[in-house]
Amino acid sequence: MLNPFFDLTDHFRWIGALERQMDRAFVSGGRDESRSWFVMRDAGDALILRADLPGFTEKDLEITLENDVLTLRAEGHKRAFEGYKTVRTERAKLGFSRQIELPVRVDSDGVVATLKDGVLELKLPKAVEARQRRIPIIGAKNETVS
Amino acid sequence: MQPQTINGRQSTTFQGNGAAAKTSERETTRQARTVTPPIDVLENANEWLVFADLPGVSADSLNLSLEKDTLTLTAERKSDIVDRSVVYKRAFFIPNEIDPDKIEAKLEDGVLTLRLPRRDSMKPRTIAVKAG
User: Fold this and answer.
1) How far is B131 from chain A (nearest CA, A)?
2) Nearest by CB to A117, which of B8, B86, B109?
3) Which of B56, B49, B54, B113 is nearest to B88 (CA)?
4) Is the Cβ pair A35, B35 closer than 8 Å?
5) Quick check: B106 and A55 in contact, CB under 8 A?
6) Which among B39, B44, B58 has CB closest to A91?
7) A110-133 pLDDT per residue, tens
8) Does residue B52 come out as left (phi exceeding 0), alpha (psi in the -120 to 50 range) or beta?
9) What is the pLDDT of residues A29-44, one digit of tens each?
10) Chain A hits for B38, Cβ within 8 Å
11) Mean pLDDT over all residues of chain B?
């Protein structure tokens, strides 16, 4: 982790891998196991989190941000249909709660969440102090200005 | 792709491919990859219901085609800032007891619902008894 060229993207990939392992461990029947249902990327000034949540609507989801911890809670619905017999079940069981520790401080007021076609996208703008800044270099000529 | 039967009674095909039952992914190109969407299947006396998770798919990028007794689902999920594009693909064997003209499909919140009614002749009925 002391590598100065450590890329946040790799960090997120690692989170993704961990999430998949957790899903394997805790969700019987499984979410999409070969593909992360949850992806996070560093988009420069913001972190982008995308989660596949087919069947969920705005009302089912609760997103909270406290310090650097993002909590995603989804309320499940019963899928049993009256009078129907279940023949096959592959889809993930509904309802979960997940905490995600963010690697950088974000501006909680600027967070935007959208849900479309069963995909949640969260845009988390980085706090000003966490953004990349270009450091101006003072050349030898400038030193004589004062 | 081998079509799968949705009919539990023809369960040799149905249960036989346990590996395919799990969502699988196959690398095709670096641009897009094929994903087998997970499904749930329910039935009652009148119909079969199939639910498929297709997150990120809108109705205009979903294609359902029925050829002879095979229903093929193909859907494209466009690439975005976090991931490259995905093609969802799955084929189902539609048993003869289902009326192909009455199949209905609905896509909502990234979930496809297929309603496959049985042929009227296959539905249970009560026979009226005339009083002698």
Assistant:
1) 32
2) B109
3) B54
4) yes
5) no
6) B39
7) 999 999 999 999 999 999 887 777
8) beta
9) 334 444 567 888 888 8
10) 32, 90-92
11) 80
Cβ contact, residue pair A88, B6, below 8 Å: yes
Q: Is the pLDDT of residue A85 over 80?
A: yes
In a domain, B67, yes or no: yes
Confidence at residue A65, expressed as pLDDT on a 0 to 100 scale: 93
For residue A122, give the CATH number of its domain. Answer: 2.60.40.790
Using CB atoms, pick whichever of B35, B54, B86 lies closest to residue A54.
Answer: B54
ipTM comes to 0.71
**CATH number, domain containing residue B97:** 2.60.40.790
**Each residue's pLDDT tens digit, B69-88:** 899 999 999 887 777 889 99
Number of separate domains in chain A: 1
